[in-house]
Amino acid sequence: MQCLDHTLIARRVPGIRVNFSVLPDFVAISGLVAVFWTLLRRTRQSRLNFWLVGWGLLLIHILALFVADNSRGSADGAYSVAVSMLVLTANAFMWASSDQLEIRWRNLSMVVFSAVPDVILLTCVFYDVQAGWLYALLTVAGAASTLWMMRAWHGPTGRPTLRWRTSLVVTVYAVQGALLGLHHPQQTLNWMLAWHYLAVAALYRMTAPQPSASVRFTTISFIAWAFVFPVSQLMSVLWPHVHVAAEVWNLPKFLVATGMTFTLLEEQLSKAEYASLHDALTGLANRRLLVRQLHESMRRTKAAGTQLALVVIDLDGFKEINDTLGHAVGDEVLQWAARQFRAQLGPKDVLARLGGDEFAVVLSDVPDRAAAERIAQSLRGALAGGMVARGRQLAIRASVGFSMYPAEGEDADRLYAVADNAMYEGKPYRQEQEPLSGADAARLFSGE
């Protein structure tokens, strides 16, 4: 179809032949930008900000190629713009791995201005400027500006370290300076493009929350994109008569786009799963996750021949706080209580909010009942100091009860009923709450 359109245009306008070979790329990337823009408006995923900037710059790259391919005069200017956009795109993708992901003038200026020395150097290469001192100056300036950007870059996982980033920048610009000193401008251009996209691949992989399949796929696609530039030049030298279709060289960028899309999908699924298993107010596990963790702990405990404890906690007088001070203060109390409880527990213990003012804890590998009693009392004592809310000192108290597995029950329903009854027995005002019946416990713990 592309060849047919080309023939029709050539016949319609004699003497003018327009090369539309980049049109499919432009349409595909435009569609990708539209999809990412829609996703950004719906999901507000922050990394999409700079992904959109990067793919927008790639659209400019494609337009510059179109101008270069159809220019009657010198196409050096258009080609230099096209290559410069590739560098800027890589910088935008690098910044997308940072935890400073809002589109602000300061952040966006780092992406743009850090690439200015490299852009000037690329332009000088395309126009065959013969000035060794200028290339040396631009190489030093490029290293300095990239270090400036990398120092401001902060990875959400704390990796890679500043020392690692600094070493990377110094190394790549040392290689660039050596290539320029040996008078290899084409190799310098390919090296600049290759290392930029290799750096994107490294930062993308190292700062990913988890090494999922989509993250690995996108990382490999970025590496393939990086190797397009040196491999294409190597093939032109070793096999000058071999023709590789442009679609083959463009394939890595579309693989990157596919990987990014799947990464966003995975993140959305992970967030949905997290929301389904955690309390929105406190961030603690909810009933569903507690049931799952309790069943798993019971299986491990039975296999190991050890014991576990289920602790149930209820805040005394919480209804009065809500009624007199409002639900906003009640929410603050729940969040504060959750932090106090968490501070008393080990990393393997599961703390959950079951709803309202009720919490539960699964204590794994408890040596005996006395140890469970000590932890239960520490949870109650964690609230003894009270808290200040809206300028008022609030005295917060809690009733605590627990049960032991397997001594006091071999199923979750029975354990919860025993712990809840023990908690009720310790309440200062028993008339406020009736002990939980076995049927109620079954409704809470029999399924997910």
Detailed description of the structure:
The chain is of the alpha+beta class and 448 residues long. The chain has 2 domains: 2-277; 287-445, 2-Layer Sandwich (Alpha-Beta Plaits), CATH 3.30.70. It contains 17 helices and 6 strands. The chain has helices at residues 2-12, 23-43, 47-69, 76-95, 105-113, 116-126, 132-152, 162-181, 185-206, 213-238, 246-277, 287-304, 318-325, 327-343, 369-381, 412-425, 438-445; strands spanning 308-316, 350-355, 358-363, 387-389, 392-394, 397-405. The strands form 2 sheets. A 4-stranded antiparallel sheet has the order 2-3-1-6, sandwiched between helices. The chain has a two-stranded antiparallel ribbon with strand order 4-5. The model is unreliable at 1-16 and 430-444 (pLDDT under 50).
Q: From the helix content, strand content and strand pairing, which structural class follows?
A: alpha+beta
Strand order of the largest sheet: 2-3-1-6
Quickly count the domains: 2
Q: How far apart lie the N and C ends?
A: 55 Å
Overall form: elongated
Order of secondary-structure elements: HHHHHHHHHHHHEHHEEHEEEHH
User: How does the major sheet shape up?
Assistant: 4 strands, antiparallel
Q: What percentage of the residues does DSSP assign to strands (E)?
A: 5-15%
**Poorly predicted segments:** 1-16, 430-444
Count helical runs.
17
Helix content: 55-70%
Mean pLDDT: 83
Rg (C-alpha, Å): 31 Å
Number of E strands: 6
